[in-house]
Amino acid sequence: MIALLDTNVLIRFLTSDETEKFRGVYTFFESLERGDLRVELKLIVLFQVVSVLKSFYSVPIQDIASGMLDLLEYKGIIVRDKRIVRRTLILWHDNKLDIVDCYLLACLEEDKQNILYSYDCDFDNFEIDRREP
After folding, report:
1. C or N terminus of the chain, fewer CB within 10 Å?
2. CB 102 within 8 Å of CB 92
3. Do 117 and 133 form a contact (C-beta atoms < 8 A)?
4. Residue 117 burial (CB < 10 Å; 0-12/13-18/19+)?
5. Is the four-CA dihedral 65, 68, 69, 70 of positive or negative sign?
6. What confidence tens digit (pLDDT) does each residue in 13-36 have?
7. CB-based contacts of 99: which residues, under 8 Å, 6+ apart?
């Protein structure tokens, strides 16, 4: 059985919602931190959390990135390609780039032979192979 984590649960936890549901979610995340419970965090959910926190809640990028990086350390939160996701969040925290661009950069850094086809010249500030189609 695979347990998946939904966006609304992460949002409620990260915003410290002061409702009855938050008290339950806090206990839930304590179990995840210890590894007593295991869930998979899909990349699409992570990106949706970032988008909602940034646009609807106006949370600063650095705070979102730090919070998500902390969650990646929870023993019970499984993320495929965790190293790439971690690098994505660090790039996003440290640069004024879109989160998706940071993800592409992190993927490209994994294998220097990879090529990015893009018209976005911001990528030229990084050691990657960007080409225009």
Report:
1. N
2. yes
3. yes
4. exposed
5. positive
6. 999 866 676 678 889 999 999 999
7. 47, 50, 51, 88, 92
pTM: 0.89
Q: Is 132 exposed, middle or buried (0-12, 13-18, 19+ CB in 10 A)?
A: exposed
Asked if residue 2 lies in contact with residue 36, where contact means CB atoms within 8 angstroms, the answer is no
State whether 19 and 57 are in the same domain.
yes
Phi, psi at 24, each rounded to 5°? -70, -40
Rounded distance, CA 88 to CA 102, Å?
A: 5
Cα dist from 23 to 11, 37, 56, 63, 110, whole Å: 14, 17, 22, 22, 39
> What range defines the domain where residue 92 resides?
82-133
The reply to whether 2 and 63 lie within a common domain is: yes
Q: Judge contact between 101 and 108, C-beta under 8 A.
A: no
**Reduced DSSP (H G I as helix, E B as strand, rest coil) percent helix, strand, coil of the chain, to 5:** 60, 10, 35
Q: Are 66 and 91 within one domain?
A: no
Tokens of 103: 């993800």
Amino acid found at 100: V
